[in-house]
Amino acid sequence: MVSLSNQITSFAQREDDSLYKAWENFKDLLRLYPHHNIQQWIVVQTFYDGITYAMRSMIDAAANGTLMSKTEEEAYNLIERMTLTITNDPTKEVNPRGLGVSLISML
After folding, report:
1. DSSP character string of the chain
2. From the first residue on, what is the mean pLDDT of each consecutive set of 10 residues in the chain (107 residues)?
């Protein structure tokens, strides 16, 4: 279990992962270790710290500031909404190398 805990706390987005894929990979780690006892704000912070600068910028734009200025619930829900929006419209899928202006404007 220590290995899973380390994987969670040292999460890093893979180079070609979209925001959706990175979020799903991160949640998969959490599901593998359901008794991780990591507080939700740390979950959000760990994910945010582990994604690319481009993805953080996109999330911050959707947050109308910075994600970390939101409550833990607001931050978590924003990431969930963003990834659901991407999933529901594959043409809006964004990779880490480019920001999707259409995605940001959708939120």
Report:
1. -HHHHHHHHT----TT--HHHHHHHHHHHHHHSTT----HHHHHHHHHHHS-HHHHHHHHHHTTS-GGGS-HHHHHHHHHHHHHHHHH-GGG---TTS--HHHHHH-
2. 83 92 94 87 95 95 94 95 72 47 43
> Which token pair is 96?
């880490």
In Å, how far are 27, 46, 52, 101 from 6, measured between CA atoms?
14, 11, 19, 34
Cβ 48 vs Cβ 59: under 8 Å: yes
Cα distance between residue 101 and residue 73, in whole Å: 25
Q: Where are the domains of the chain?
A: 2-106
Residue 26 class from Cβ within 10 Å (0-12 exposed, 13-18 middle, 19+ buried)? buried
pTM: 0.78
